[in-house]
């Protein structure tokens, strides 16, 4: 049975220029009606005890204190969380009052959407917070003992320099967060960035410079005591994201909320995205699932490999054999030997993992594991 749950809150006070997640401006939205439907969906989930819950968005902290209390009361009445309860937050929205609500309902980890410490780059990204908001939020968290937080950062931003990365590393050293997610900017269709680049009004660095920045991030964080454990994730010992490892280990999980998805009994399901349609479907049908996709054995093995290879530890060879009734060598032996010869993967202590070289061309390597 699944032991993890993702909950999606699609509302934002501002739409960021790079974001392609399922989101809407919160003004004039039926937020309370959405929470009604979401709570009804949560009540349909069979599990009562979960290892991890992750509330993301959108921007969950766009909700008012009363709305946060209502949502979290329903979540904690329905589920017992035994390990990790994460809440995404924007620094400017993480007020002392909202933090008290999160803390009182057992949230024990915050994913703080910092993105960059450069005030000018924050404006380019369309973020609603400023430099001072970051430190105010962290001070509020530390005052109530909620010091298990992740800084979400980005690199390869338009106009960004190596000095900006060094500045972020300096702040990491000063703040000493438990965890860091540091992603490369991806230009997604239907975003402001995409349209600006297409019209020649903005540019980002080429792949070579992006690779240099990635190496700079990895090496800089390692020197500060944050070893990399996944392509874009780094942590102090014992503070890896247990919820996200559910995805990378290709384990089952529930998804709730507009546009969310889950993975149960080898079937992926996808919820309705538009907020009003989501509400209407729950009211009329008692279900918000738009489509399902049952994975055959081939697809399951493919996902086991390219999700697991995202982790520095790699894919467990013995677990693969137990899960699929075929040895990894039988299914992927020739591909593994090919990628070993290229210096892209290695075998170590019962795991097949990417090398440093392979991590730089990860997507290309993943494609080799399609059957």
Automatic annotation (TrEMBL):
<dbReference type="GO" id="GO:0051539">
    <property type="term" value="F:4 iron, 4 sulfur cluster binding"/>
</dbReference>
<comment type="similarity">
    <text>Belongs to the anaerobic coproporphyrinogen-III oxidase family. HemW subfamily.</text>
</comment>
<keyword id="KW-0479">Metal-binding</keyword>
<dbReference type="GO" id="GO:0005737">
    <property type="term" value="C:cytoplasm"/>
</dbReference>
<protein>
    <recommendedName>
        <fullName>Heme chaperone HemW</fullName>
    </recommendedName>
</protein>
<keyword id="KW-0949">S-adenosyl-L-methionine</keyword>
<dbReference type="GO" id="GO:0046872">
    <property type="term" value="F:metal ion binding"/>
</dbReference>
<keyword id="KW-0143">Chaperone</keyword>
<dbReference type="InterPro" id="IPR010723">
    <property type="entry name" value="HemN_C"/>
</dbReference>
<dbReference type="InterPro" id="IPR034505">
    <property type="entry name" value="Coproporphyrinogen-III_oxidase"/>
</dbReference>
<dbReference type="Pfam" id="PF06969">
    <property type="entry name" value="HemN_C"/>
</dbReference>
<dbReference type="InterPro" id="IPR004559">
    <property type="entry name" value="HemW-like"/>
</dbReference>
<dbReference type="Pfam" id="PF04055">
    <property type="entry name" value="Radical_SAM"/>
</dbReference>
<keyword id="KW-0004">4Fe-4S</keyword>
<dbReference type="InterPro" id="IPR013785">
    <property type="entry name" value="Aldolase_TIM"/>
</dbReference>
<dbReference type="GO" id="GO:0004109">
    <property type="term" value="F:coproporphyrinogen oxidase activity"/>
</dbReference>
<dbReference type="InterPro" id="IPR006638">
    <property type="entry name" value="Elp3/MiaA/NifB-like_rSAM"/>
</dbReference>
<feature type="domain" description="Radical SAM core">
    <location>
        <begin position="1"/>
        <end position="227"/>
    </location>
</feature>
<dbReference type="InterPro" id="IPR007197">
    <property type="entry name" value="rSAM"/>
</dbReference>
<dbReference type="InterPro" id="IPR058240">
    <property type="entry name" value="rSAM_sf"/>
</dbReference>
<keyword id="KW-0349">Heme</keyword>
<keyword id="KW-0408">Iron</keyword>
<keyword id="KW-0411">Iron-sulfur</keyword>
<dbReference type="GO" id="GO:0006779">
    <property type="term" value="P:porphyrin-containing compound biosynthetic process"/>
</dbReference>
<keyword id="KW-0963">Cytoplasm</keyword>
<comment type="function">
    <text>Probably acts as a heme chaperone, transferring heme to an unknown acceptor. Binds one molecule of heme per monomer, possibly covalently. Binds 1 [4Fe-4S] cluster. The cluster is coordinated with 3 cysteines and an exchangeable S-adenosyl-L-methionine.</text>
</comment>
